[in-house]
Amino acid sequence: MAMQVNATRMELLKLKKRVNLAVRGHKLLKQKQDELLRVIQEIARKLSNMRKEIEKEFLRALKGFFLARAYQDKISFEASFLLLDTDVDLSMTWKKVMNVTLPEYKKTFKGELISYGFANTSPALDEALKNLMDVFDRLLLLAEMEKSIALLAEEMDRTRRRVNALEYILIPELKGAVRYINMKLAERERETNSRLMRIKDVIRG
Fold it and tell me: What CATH number matches the domain at 9-188, 1.10.3720.10, 3.40.50.2000, 1.10.287.3240, 2.60.120.10?
């Protein structure tokens, strides 16, 4: 729908300023959109590789537990985990990337990872626990990156809608209003000149 405007020179100046402001805003938002896309693609590439690595590490940790279980009877194997004296706290902080608030997950480990006796356990269990803890750290990073990419994608979608609104709605409407006022002012100027010429002809006659 065309903008309703008064065809005055003051309104024309205001509209021209709005056009310039909208064009600059569109340019900045387009740059932000392109940068968000670059960051998302970069994280996506890292995610793809990291998932594959974590799957391998997790399988290695599971195999270690199966191997450790093979050296122990069921009761002593399960009892080993009852003796673990560890405490893991998770915390979350925030950081800004492209004006988007992204999470950072941190783990605080307290106690001893291996606190059971060595008499009835195998080295395979020690290795499996260490591998599992390493996978846990990587899983935290994976969760952080997946949440970040989701938040960045939401911001990119909002930015894209603003870019499209400026490019296809606001800027064309503003420029159309400027053309309309220019046309009306030119028409009035021609009418004024025509009246002046008639007045001159009347005075001369």
Answer: 1.10.287.3240
